[in-house]
Amino acid sequence: MKTLIRNGTVVTASDTAKTDVLIDGEKIMAIGNALEVKADQTIDAEGRYVMPGAVDVHTHMELPFGGTFASDDFATGSAAAAWGGTTTIVDFAVQTFGQSLRQGLDQWHQKADGKAHIDYGFHMIVREVNDSILREMDTLVREGVPSFKLFMAYPGVFMLDDGAIFRALSRTAENGGLIMMHAENGGAIDVLVKRYLAEGKGDPINHGLTRPASMEGEATGRAIALARLAEVAVYIVHLSSKEALDAVRQARDDGAPAFAETCPQYLYLSLEDLGRPGFEGAKYVCSPPLRTRPHHDELWKGLIQDDLQLVATDHCPFHFKGQKEMGRGDFSKIPNGLPGVEDRFTLIFHGGVNSGRISVNRFVELVATAPARMFGLFPRKGTIAPGSDADVVIFNPNVERTLSARTHHMNVDYSCYEGMTVRGLPEVVIQRGNVLVRDGKFHGTKGAGQYLRRSAFHGVPAGEPSPVGVTA
Ligand code: URP
Ligand code: ZN
Ligand code: ZN
To answer: Could you tell me if the CB of 245 is within 6 A of ligand 1?
Structure first.
Protein backbone atom coordinates (compact mmCIF):
# COMPACT_ATOMS: atom_id res chain seq x y z
CA MET A 1 0.00 0.00 0.00
CA LYS A 2 1.51 3.32 -1.09
CA THR A 3 0.31 6.66 0.30
CA LEU A 4 1.39 9.97 -1.15
CA ILE A 5 1.06 13.11 0.96
CA ARG A 6 1.16 16.05 -1.43
CA ASN A 7 1.62 19.81 -1.05
CA GLY A 8 2.22 19.91 2.70
CA THR A 9 4.97 21.69 4.60
CA VAL A 10 7.15 18.93 6.00
CA VAL A 11 8.67 19.80 9.35
CA THR A 12 11.39 17.94 11.20
CA ALA A 13 13.52 19.06 14.13
CA SER A 14 16.04 20.50 11.67
CA ASP A 15 14.22 21.36 8.42
CA THR A 16 11.09 22.88 6.96
CA ALA A 17 10.24 22.25 3.30
CA LYS A 18 7.19 22.35 1.09
CA THR A 19 7.50 18.91 -0.41
CA ASP A 20 5.80 15.53 -0.82
CA VAL A 21 6.13 12.43 1.32
CA LEU A 22 5.75 8.91 -0.01
CA ILE A 23 4.83 6.08 2.33
CA ASP A 24 5.35 2.51 1.24
CA GLY A 25 3.83 -0.05 3.59
CA GLU A 26 4.86 0.84 7.14
CA LYS A 27 7.83 3.06 6.23
CA ILE A 28 8.59 6.46 4.81
CA MET A 29 9.99 5.72 1.38
CA ALA A 30 10.84 9.11 -0.08
CA ILE A 31 10.62 12.84 0.47
CA GLY A 32 10.82 15.11 -2.55
CA ASN A 33 9.15 17.55 -4.88
CA ALA A 34 6.40 16.40 -7.22
CA LEU A 35 7.11 12.72 -6.69
CA GLU A 36 5.95 10.81 -9.76
CA VAL A 37 4.51 7.61 -8.36
CA LYS A 38 1.31 5.69 -8.64
CA ALA A 39 0.00 5.70 -5.10
CA ASP A 40 -2.95 3.76 -3.72
CA GLN A 41 -4.12 6.88 -1.93
CA THR A 42 -3.15 10.54 -2.10
CA ILE A 43 -3.72 12.98 0.74
CA ASP A 44 -3.66 16.68 -0.05
CA ALA A 45 -1.90 18.53 2.79
CA GLU A 46 -1.99 22.02 1.25
CA GLY A 47 -1.87 24.62 4.04
CA ARG A 48 -0.96 21.96 6.60
CA TYR A 49 2.18 20.90 8.41
CA VAL A 50 3.35 17.33 7.89
CA MET A 51 5.10 16.32 11.08
CA PRO A 52 6.39 13.15 12.74
CA GLY A 53 3.90 11.36 14.96
CA ALA A 54 4.52 12.59 18.48
CA VAL A 55 6.18 10.47 21.16
CA ASP A 56 4.93 10.74 24.74
CA VAL A 57 7.46 9.14 27.07
CA HIS A 58 5.50 9.56 30.29
CA THR A 59 2.09 7.89 30.61
CA HIS A 60 0.39 5.80 33.28
CA MET A 61 -2.37 3.69 31.78
CA GLU A 62 -4.34 1.87 34.48
CA LEU A 63 -1.82 2.84 37.15
CA PRO A 64 -2.82 1.63 40.61
CA PHE A 65 -2.72 4.63 42.95
CA GLY A 66 -4.23 5.27 46.37
CA GLY A 67 -6.66 2.36 46.23
CA THR A 68 -7.89 2.98 42.68
CA PHE A 69 -6.64 2.79 39.09
CA ALA A 70 -5.99 5.45 36.46
CA SER A 71 -9.17 5.55 34.39
CA ASP A 72 -7.63 5.15 30.92
CA ASP A 73 -6.48 1.68 29.97
CA PHE A 74 -4.22 0.98 27.00
CA ALA A 75 -7.21 0.83 24.64
CA THR A 76 -8.90 4.09 25.59
CA GLY A 77 -5.70 5.98 26.40
CA SER A 78 -3.89 5.05 23.22
CA ALA A 79 -6.90 5.97 21.07
CA ALA A 80 -7.06 9.35 22.81
CA ALA A 81 -3.32 9.78 22.22
CA ALA A 82 -3.83 9.15 18.50
CA TRP A 83 -6.65 11.68 18.31
CA GLY A 84 -4.16 14.18 19.70
CA GLY A 85 -1.31 13.41 17.28
CA THR A 86 0.69 11.04 19.49
CA THR A 87 1.57 7.75 17.82
CA THR A 88 3.98 6.31 20.39
CA ILE A 89 3.81 6.16 24.17
CA VAL A 90 6.26 4.86 26.74
CA ASP A 91 4.32 3.79 29.83
CA PHE A 92 5.58 2.95 33.30
CA ALA A 93 5.37 -0.70 34.33
CA VAL A 94 5.33 -1.02 38.12
CA GLN A 95 7.24 -3.44 40.29
CA THR A 96 4.97 -4.77 43.02
CA PHE A 97 6.74 -4.54 46.34
CA GLY A 98 8.49 -7.84 47.14
CA GLN A 99 8.17 -9.10 43.57
CA SER A 100 10.61 -9.13 40.68
CA LEU A 101 10.84 -6.53 37.95
CA ARG A 102 9.96 -9.31 35.49
CA GLN A 103 6.62 -9.90 37.22
CA GLY A 104 5.81 -6.19 36.97
CA LEU A 105 6.78 -6.14 33.33
CA ASP A 106 4.69 -9.23 32.56
CA GLN A 107 1.73 -7.56 34.21
CA TRP A 108 2.16 -4.49 32.01
CA HIS A 109 2.33 -6.62 28.89
CA GLN A 110 -0.98 -8.16 29.93
CA LYS A 111 -2.48 -4.69 30.23
CA ALA A 112 -1.15 -3.44 26.88
CA ASP A 113 -0.67 -6.33 24.44
CA GLY A 114 -3.65 -6.76 22.17
CA LYS A 115 -5.20 -3.53 23.42
CA ALA A 116 -3.07 -0.58 22.32
CA HIS A 117 -4.03 1.29 19.16
CA ILE A 118 -0.58 2.85 18.85
CA ASP A 119 2.98 1.64 19.40
CA TYR A 120 4.23 1.47 22.95
CA GLY A 121 7.26 0.73 25.07
CA PHE A 122 7.82 0.47 28.79
CA HIS A 123 9.93 2.03 31.50
CA MET A 124 10.14 0.18 34.82
CA ILE A 125 9.26 1.71 38.21
CA VAL A 126 11.67 0.24 40.76
CA ARG A 127 10.33 0.18 44.33
CA GLU A 128 13.21 -1.56 46.07
CA VAL A 129 16.87 -2.04 45.33
CA ASN A 130 18.77 -5.22 46.19
CA ASP A 131 21.32 -7.46 44.44
CA SER A 132 18.69 -9.42 42.59
CA ILE A 133 16.84 -6.30 41.39
CA LEU A 134 20.12 -4.78 40.20
CA ARG A 135 20.84 -7.90 38.16
CA GLU A 136 17.35 -7.74 36.69
CA MET A 137 18.00 -4.15 35.66
CA ASP A 138 20.93 -5.37 33.53
CA THR A 139 18.64 -7.90 31.85
CA LEU A 140 15.90 -5.37 31.19
CA VAL A 141 18.35 -2.94 29.59
CA ARG A 142 19.39 -5.71 27.19
CA GLU A 143 15.76 -6.62 26.49
CA GLY A 144 14.67 -3.14 25.48
CA VAL A 145 13.45 -1.67 28.77
CA PRO A 146 16.48 0.51 29.52
CA SER A 147 14.94 3.19 31.76
CA PHE A 148 13.94 3.00 35.41
CA LYS A 149 11.88 5.41 37.43
CA LEU A 150 12.83 5.93 41.07
CA PHE A 151 10.99 8.02 43.62
CA MET A 152 12.34 10.43 46.21
CA ALA A 153 8.69 11.01 47.29
CA TYR A 154 5.78 8.94 48.65
CA PRO A 155 7.42 7.39 51.74
CA GLY A 156 6.20 3.87 52.49
CA VAL A 157 4.87 3.46 48.96
CA PHE A 158 7.49 4.29 46.34
CA MET A 159 10.24 6.29 48.07
CA LEU A 160 13.83 5.00 48.06
CA ASP A 161 16.60 6.28 50.32
CA ASP A 162 19.76 7.90 48.98
CA GLY A 163 21.78 4.69 49.36
CA ALA A 164 19.35 2.72 47.22
CA ILE A 165 19.22 5.52 44.66
CA PHE A 166 23.00 5.67 44.49
CA ARG A 167 23.23 1.91 43.99
CA ALA A 168 20.73 2.03 41.12
CA LEU A 169 22.47 5.01 39.51
CA SER A 170 25.83 3.27 39.80
CA ARG A 171 24.37 0.22 38.10
CA THR A 172 23.16 2.26 35.13
CA ALA A 173 26.69 3.65 34.79
CA GLU A 174 27.66 0.05 34.00
CA ASN A 175 24.67 -1.25 32.05
CA GLY A 176 23.74 1.76 29.90
CA GLY A 177 20.34 2.28 31.52
CA LEU A 178 18.87 5.63 32.47
CA ILE A 179 17.42 6.57 35.86
CA MET A 180 14.31 8.77 35.68
CA MET A 181 13.78 10.55 38.96
CA HIS A 182 10.64 11.76 40.67
CA ALA A 183 12.44 14.48 42.61
CA GLU A 184 10.55 15.77 45.64
CA ASN A 185 11.73 15.52 49.24
CA GLY A 186 9.19 12.96 50.43
CA GLY A 187 10.31 12.95 54.07
CA ALA A 188 9.83 16.67 54.67
CA ILE A 189 6.63 16.76 52.61
CA ASP A 190 5.16 13.92 54.68
CA VAL A 191 5.73 15.87 57.90
CA LEU A 192 4.00 18.92 56.40
CA VAL A 193 1.06 16.83 55.15
CA LYS A 194 0.49 15.33 58.61
CA ARG A 195 0.81 18.77 60.24
CA TYR A 196 -1.71 20.38 57.86
CA LEU A 197 -4.21 17.56 58.29
CA ALA A 198 -3.87 17.75 62.10
CA GLU A 199 -4.66 21.47 61.83
CA GLY A 200 -7.85 20.66 59.89
CA LYS A 201 -6.52 21.88 56.56
CA GLY A 202 -7.93 19.17 54.29
CA ASP A 203 -8.85 21.11 51.12
CA PRO A 204 -7.12 20.38 47.78
CA ILE A 205 -5.11 23.63 47.86
CA ASN A 206 -3.14 22.17 50.78
CA HIS A 207 -1.77 19.50 48.45
CA GLY A 208 0.15 22.31 46.77
CA LEU A 209 1.09 24.14 49.95
CA THR A 210 2.61 21.03 51.54
CA ARG A 211 4.83 20.27 48.52
CA PRO A 212 6.82 23.49 48.12
CA ALA A 213 9.02 24.16 45.11
CA SER A 214 12.03 24.38 47.43
CA MET A 215 11.60 20.66 48.19
CA GLU A 216 11.54 19.85 44.48
CA GLY A 217 14.66 21.97 44.02
CA GLU A 218 16.41 20.23 46.91
CA ALA A 219 15.58 16.74 45.64
CA THR A 220 16.54 17.60 42.06
CA GLY A 221 19.91 18.90 43.24
CA ARG A 222 20.41 15.79 45.37
CA ALA A 223 19.48 13.45 42.52
CA ILE A 224 21.98 15.17 40.25
CA ALA A 225 24.68 15.14 42.94
CA LEU A 226 24.19 11.39 43.40
CA ALA A 227 24.31 10.86 39.62
CA ARG A 228 27.51 12.87 39.38
CA LEU A 229 29.02 10.78 42.16
CA ALA A 230 28.03 7.67 40.22
CA GLU A 231 29.42 9.25 37.05
CA VAL A 232 26.24 8.73 35.09
CA ALA A 233 23.42 10.67 33.47
CA VAL A 234 20.11 11.29 35.18
CA TYR A 235 16.72 12.38 33.83
CA ILE A 236 14.29 14.36 35.97
CA VAL A 237 10.62 13.63 35.23
CA HIS A 238 7.73 16.11 35.40
CA LEU A 239 9.86 19.09 36.40
CA SER A 240 7.51 21.83 37.61
CA SER A 241 9.43 24.69 39.19
CA LYS A 242 12.14 27.29 38.75
CA GLU A 243 13.97 25.83 41.75
CA ALA A 244 14.28 22.42 40.10
CA LEU A 245 15.14 23.95 36.74
CA ASP A 246 17.93 25.97 38.35
CA ALA A 247 19.46 22.74 39.68
CA VAL A 248 19.34 21.14 36.21
CA ARG A 249 20.68 24.25 34.50
CA GLN A 250 23.58 24.59 36.90
CA ALA A 251 24.57 20.96 36.39
CA ARG A 252 24.37 21.32 32.61
CA ASP A 253 26.41 24.51 32.72
CA ASP A 254 29.02 22.46 34.63
CA GLY A 255 28.96 19.92 31.80
CA ALA A 256 27.12 17.22 33.75
CA PRO A 257 24.66 15.01 31.81
CA ALA A 258 21.47 16.11 33.57
CA PHE A 259 18.26 16.00 31.53
CA ALA A 260 14.66 16.89 32.27
CA GLU A 261 11.15 16.99 30.92
CA THR A 262 8.25 19.21 31.81
CA CYS A 263 4.56 18.72 31.09
CA PRO A 264 1.80 20.98 29.69
CA GLN A 265 0.09 21.29 33.07
CA TYR A 266 3.15 23.05 34.51
CA LEU A 267 3.09 25.53 31.59
CA TYR A 268 -0.63 26.32 31.71
CA LEU A 269 -2.17 25.51 35.10
CA SER A 270 -1.38 26.94 38.51
CA LEU A 271 -1.91 26.83 42.24
CA GLU A 272 -5.00 28.97 41.61
CA ASP A 273 -6.61 25.93 39.96
CA LEU A 274 -5.88 23.84 43.04
CA GLY A 275 -7.65 26.53 45.05
CA ARG A 276 -10.84 26.49 42.96
CA PRO A 277 -13.94 26.74 45.15
CA GLY A 278 -15.72 23.77 46.61
CA PHE A 279 -13.84 20.59 45.94
CA GLU A 280 -13.10 21.41 42.28
CA GLY A 281 -9.40 21.89 43.06
CA ALA A 282 -9.18 18.09 43.38
CA LYS A 283 -9.26 17.90 39.58
CA TYR A 284 -5.82 19.52 39.59
CA VAL A 285 -4.07 17.35 42.18
CA CYS A 286 -0.84 15.91 40.82
CA SER A 287 2.73 15.62 42.10
CA PRO A 288 4.80 17.71 41.91
CA PRO A 289 1.89 20.11 42.37
CA LEU A 290 0.90 22.98 40.13
CA ARG A 291 2.96 26.06 40.93
CA THR A 292 2.33 29.80 40.93
CA ARG A 293 2.15 31.53 37.53
CA PRO A 294 5.68 33.00 37.45
CA HIS A 295 7.04 29.45 37.14
CA HIS A 296 5.37 29.12 33.70
CA ASP A 297 7.66 31.64 32.01
CA GLU A 298 10.71 30.09 33.66
CA LEU A 299 9.80 26.68 32.26
CA TRP A 300 9.18 28.08 28.78
CA LYS A 301 12.62 29.68 29.03
CA GLY A 302 14.02 26.27 29.95
CA LEU A 303 12.40 24.75 26.84
CA ILE A 304 13.72 27.54 24.63
CA GLN A 305 17.27 27.26 25.98
CA ASP A 306 17.30 23.43 26.03
CA ASP A 307 17.77 23.15 29.78
CA LEU A 308 14.52 21.18 29.43
CA GLN A 309 14.87 18.72 26.57
CA LEU A 310 11.31 17.62 25.99
CA VAL A 311 7.65 17.76 26.92
CA ALA A 312 5.79 14.65 28.09
CA THR A 313 2.35 14.45 29.70
CA ASP A 314 2.49 12.31 32.87
CA HIS A 315 -0.97 11.27 31.72
CA CYS A 316 -2.59 9.70 34.79
CA PRO A 317 -6.33 10.42 34.76
CA PHE A 318 -8.82 9.83 37.54
CA HIS A 319 -12.50 10.66 37.25
CA PHE A 320 -13.69 13.51 39.44
CA LYS A 321 -16.77 11.54 40.41
CA GLY A 322 -15.88 8.51 42.49
CA GLN A 323 -12.08 8.80 42.23
CA LYS A 324 -10.83 12.33 42.99
CA GLU A 325 -13.77 12.46 45.41
CA MET A 326 -12.05 9.84 47.58
CA GLY A 327 -10.13 12.74 49.09
CA ARG A 328 -12.97 14.99 50.23
CA GLY A 329 -11.84 16.49 53.52
CA ASP A 330 -8.38 14.88 53.25
CA PHE A 331 -6.31 16.06 50.28
CA SER A 332 -3.75 13.29 50.88
CA LYS A 333 -6.37 10.74 49.75
CA ILE A 334 -6.99 12.39 46.37
CA PRO A 335 -5.39 10.16 43.73
CA ASN A 336 -2.47 12.04 42.17
CA GLY A 337 -2.48 12.66 38.45
CA LEU A 338 -4.02 14.57 35.55
CA PRO A 339 -5.32 13.65 32.10
CA GLY A 340 -3.33 15.05 29.19
CA VAL A 341 -2.22 12.51 26.58
CA GLU A 342 -4.64 13.92 23.98
CA ASP A 343 -3.85 17.60 24.50
CA ARG A 344 -0.04 17.84 24.57
CA PHE A 345 0.57 18.28 20.85
CA THR A 346 -1.86 21.14 20.40
CA LEU A 347 -1.14 22.80 23.75
CA ILE A 348 2.59 22.97 23.07
CA PHE A 349 2.02 24.13 19.50
CA HIS A 350 -0.41 26.76 20.74
CA GLY A 351 1.66 28.04 23.66
CA GLY A 352 4.97 27.55 21.87
CA VAL A 353 4.62 28.22 18.14
CA ASN A 354 1.45 30.32 17.98
CA SER A 355 2.75 32.54 20.77
CA GLY A 356 6.11 33.01 18.99
CA ARG A 357 8.15 31.43 21.78
CA ILE A 358 9.60 28.59 19.72
CA SER A 359 10.02 27.63 16.06
CA VAL A 360 7.96 24.90 14.51
CA ASN A 361 11.18 22.84 14.33
CA ARG A 362 11.81 23.19 18.05
CA PHE A 363 8.20 22.14 18.58
CA VAL A 364 8.81 18.91 16.64
CA GLU A 365 11.98 18.37 18.62
CA LEU A 366 10.20 18.78 21.95
CA VAL A 367 7.24 16.49 21.27
CA ALA A 368 8.73 13.90 18.92
CA THR A 369 12.43 13.89 18.11
CA ALA A 370 14.03 14.49 21.51
CA PRO A 371 11.77 11.96 23.28
CA ALA A 372 12.58 9.37 20.61
CA ARG A 373 16.30 10.04 20.90
CA MET A 374 16.40 10.13 24.69
CA PHE A 375 14.52 6.86 24.99
CA GLY A 376 16.10 4.73 22.30
CA LEU A 377 13.49 4.96 19.55
CA PHE A 378 15.23 7.23 17.06
CA PRO A 379 15.34 7.19 14.01
CA ARG A 380 12.57 4.61 13.81
CA LYS A 381 10.33 7.13 15.60
CA GLY A 382 10.45 10.89 16.03
CA THR A 383 11.29 12.07 12.51
CA ILE A 384 10.23 12.00 8.89
CA ALA A 385 13.03 10.40 6.93
CA PRO A 386 13.37 7.54 4.43
CA GLY A 387 13.40 4.29 6.42
CA SER A 388 11.64 5.70 9.48
CA ASP A 389 8.26 4.33 10.52
CA ALA A 390 5.52 6.14 8.64
CA ASP A 391 4.10 7.81 11.75
CA VAL A 392 2.82 11.12 10.45
CA VAL A 393 0.59 13.93 11.67
CA ILE A 394 -1.00 16.32 9.20
CA PHE A 395 -1.61 19.34 11.35
CA ASN A 396 -3.87 22.23 10.43
CA PRO A 397 -2.51 25.28 12.27
CA ASN A 398 -5.55 27.43 11.44
CA VAL A 399 -8.38 25.53 13.10
CA GLU A 400 -9.62 27.26 16.21
CA ARG A 401 -11.29 24.96 18.71
CA THR A 402 -12.30 24.72 22.33
CA LEU A 403 -10.93 22.02 24.60
CA SER A 404 -13.62 20.22 26.56
CA ALA A 405 -14.48 16.94 28.28
CA ARG A 406 -17.54 16.85 26.01
CA THR A 407 -15.35 16.38 22.94
CA HIS A 408 -12.15 14.75 24.18
CA HIS A 409 -11.57 11.01 23.88
CA MET A 410 -9.78 10.31 27.15
CA ASN A 411 -11.78 8.17 29.57
CA VAL A 412 -12.14 10.83 32.23
CA ASP A 413 -15.10 12.98 33.21
CA TYR A 414 -13.40 16.38 33.13
CA SER A 415 -10.82 18.39 31.22
CA CYS A 416 -8.18 20.46 32.99
CA TYR A 417 -8.46 22.89 30.06
CA GLU A 418 -12.27 23.09 29.88
CA GLY A 419 -13.33 26.03 27.72
CA MET A 420 -9.83 27.00 26.61
CA THR A 421 -9.53 28.09 22.97
CA VAL A 422 -6.53 26.80 21.05
CA ARG A 423 -5.46 27.09 17.42
CA GLY A 424 -4.38 23.91 15.66
CA LEU A 425 -5.74 20.42 15.00
CA PRO A 426 -4.09 17.10 14.14
CA GLU A 427 -6.41 16.42 11.20
CA VAL A 428 -4.84 13.23 9.89
CA VAL A 429 -2.85 10.83 12.06
CA ILE A 430 -1.01 7.92 10.49
CA GLN A 431 0.83 5.10 12.24
CA ARG A 432 3.12 2.85 10.22
CA GLY A 433 1.21 3.75 7.08
CA ASN A 434 -2.25 3.13 8.55
CA VAL A 435 -4.62 6.05 8.91
CA LEU A 436 -5.81 6.26 12.52
CA VAL A 437 -7.63 9.58 12.38
CA ARG A 438 -9.07 11.38 9.34
CA ASP A 439 -12.10 13.57 8.68
CA GLY A 440 -12.97 13.61 12.37
CA LYS A 441 -13.29 9.83 12.48
CA PHE A 442 -11.23 7.16 14.19
CA HIS A 443 -10.01 4.34 11.96
CA GLY A 444 -7.58 2.64 14.36
CA THR A 445 -7.67 -0.98 15.44
CA LYS A 446 -7.52 -2.17 19.00
CA GLY A 447 -4.40 -4.28 19.39
CA ALA A 448 -2.67 -2.95 16.25
CA GLY A 449 -0.12 -1.08 18.36
CA GLN A 450 3.26 -2.83 18.44
CA TYR A 451 5.46 -3.30 21.47
CA LEU A 452 8.76 -1.44 21.05
CA ARG A 453 12.04 -2.78 22.38
CA ARG A 454 14.09 0.34 22.94
CA SER A 455 17.82 0.91 22.67
CA ALA A 456 19.85 1.68 25.76
CA PHE A 457 20.41 5.30 26.62
CA HIS A 458 23.77 5.52 24.90
CA GLY A 459 22.57 4.23 21.58
CA VAL A 460 23.25 0.54 22.11
CA PRO A 461 20.64 -1.46 20.17
CA ALA A 462 18.26 -3.57 22.24
CA GLY A 463 19.72 -7.04 22.70
CA GLU A 464 23.33 -5.97 23.09
CA PRO A 465 25.01 -5.07 26.36
CA SER A 466 26.16 -1.49 26.84
CA PRO A 467 29.88 -1.19 27.53
CA VAL A 468 29.93 2.03 29.55
CA GLY A 469 27.85 4.89 30.84
CA VAL A 470 28.48 8.56 30.22
CA THR A 471 30.72 10.08 32.81
CA ALA A 472 29.99 13.40 34.42
O1 URP B 1 0.67 13.01 40.17
C2 URP B 1 1.27 12.26 39.43
N3 URP B 1 2.33 12.71 38.81
N4 URP B 1 0.84 10.99 39.27
C5 URP B 1 1.46 9.98 38.51
C6 URP B 1 2.58 9.30 39.23
C7 URP B 1 3.86 10.06 39.11
O8 URP B 1 4.45 10.38 40.13
O9 URP B 1 4.31 10.32 38.00
ZN1 ZN C 1 6.35 10.92 39.42
ZN1 ZN D 1 4.23 10.00 36.18
So the answer is: no
